[in-house]
Hints:
Elements: E1 14-15, H1 22-26, H2 28-38, E2 41-44, E3 49-52, H3 55-63, E4 68-69, H4 93-104, H5 108-128, E5 134-137, H6 138-155, H7 165-172, H8 181-189, H9 191-200, H10 211-220, H11 226-240, H12 242-257, H13 259-267, H14 272-282, E6 288-293, E7 297-299, E8 302-304, E9 309-313, H15 314-317, H16 353-370, E10 371-376, E11 381-383, E12 390-393, E13 395-400
Protoporphyrin IX containing FE binds next to helix 4, helix 11, helix 12 and helix 16.
EC number: 1.14.-.-
GO molecular function, one term: monooxygenase activity
Amino acid sequence: MTAATTPDVIEAPVYEGDPFAMESLLDPHKADGEVREMGPVVYIEKYDYYAITQFAPMQKALRDFRRLGSGDRPFYEDNPFRPKVLVLEDPPSHTLSKSVVMSVLSGENLVKFEKYFTAEAERLVDELLADGPVEIDAYHDLAVRYVLKVFPDMLGLPEDGRELLLKFGEGVFNVFGPASDFQREKLALAAEAQQWVEENTYRDRQDPNGIGAQIYAMVDEGKLEEEHARQLLKSIFAAGFDTTTASIASMFRAFGDNPEQWQLLKERPELLKDAWEESIRYYPASRYGGRAAYEEVVVGGTRIPKGAKILTMWLGAGRDPRQYDNPDEFRIDRDMKKGHLSFGFGIHTCAGNLIARLEAKCLLRAVLERVDSIELAGEPRRAVAYQAFGHEYVPVRLSPRR
Length: 402
Ligand code: HEM
């Protein structure tokens, strides 16, 4: 049904602010919350884009992948930080790409990697607690050290230069947004890392036991072209490292701010999985996604014209009071059946969600088994980025269990 045939469809309210202004980047929950409360769909005048802001209309809209496609997203222009496959594809090409990637990021590989992730997590936490109570930066000492080891190992990448991945995120997390000095600085910071990723996604750089080699094996089986395989590998790179480190560090910040939730998890360890889900609802690593209206559509009773580019505001939707009671509280015993959109929804749901969940679960379990209390040991510092939510510093005090 189009808006023209439906009398009660309204035009989107106009938002005159700028979701990419520094004020908004510094306090994204406040900024995106204000936009969300204007209506389920808002017109962002400054960029001539629409935004879908509330949980239920967004979830419904994301099912409508034929009319709300991905081939022409906001701020799209060719860029090395934005692989052309997967996120920017529609069916039928998206279907092939997704099935290849899902075949290596699920199933037997999960069983294989769980043992390895657990061993690495336990080794790291034992090392950190070797001398008793300790103050650490949960971003660098826990999230980065752990993910920088297990994620490239899982892919089968060389050891040399891995630390450059830390800078790659500056590109990935800032390419989605308007051109500005801020963006140029971030992309410049990431240039060397981009070069490293470029070089290390070729077939001859892959460890035979890694996921990269498994993807290239599908080329030999005639399932896809060589360059397609490389782009898929790049896509896993671009999406899988910084999102996971950011989410893990944010989770420890949430526990640091809410030490009673750690005590609750100790009393009820069966909440471990829910604790992680709640932490990525509360602090989603990905603030925005994008779509384009291939036809006129009505979302939440509001017209979005054909040709419109659309922001999906995941972060604001995660705090939608229509979906969650007291959404600004971090509560690990929340009813998680309500789900969240922090891994997206619909055909573009995060291809690495099972891997990210596994990485987080193994680390959180290792910490839970060893740590009696977590408290903030200073003021955390946010990492400021166009499209992401994360921290660059999360000082916490860990006291080991006796
Ligand atoms: C907590 C960590 C993560 C978060 C919060 C996250 C978030 C997201 C979101 C929101 C999307 C949807 C984009 C959209 O619809 O526009 C997405 C897609 C994707 N993610 Fe993740 N991600 C995480 C970890 C990972 C990991 C570990 C990998 C790879 C191992 C990965 C690979 C991908 C890929 C390939 C896509 C594109 C899927 C498609 O377009 O069909 N992600 N992710």
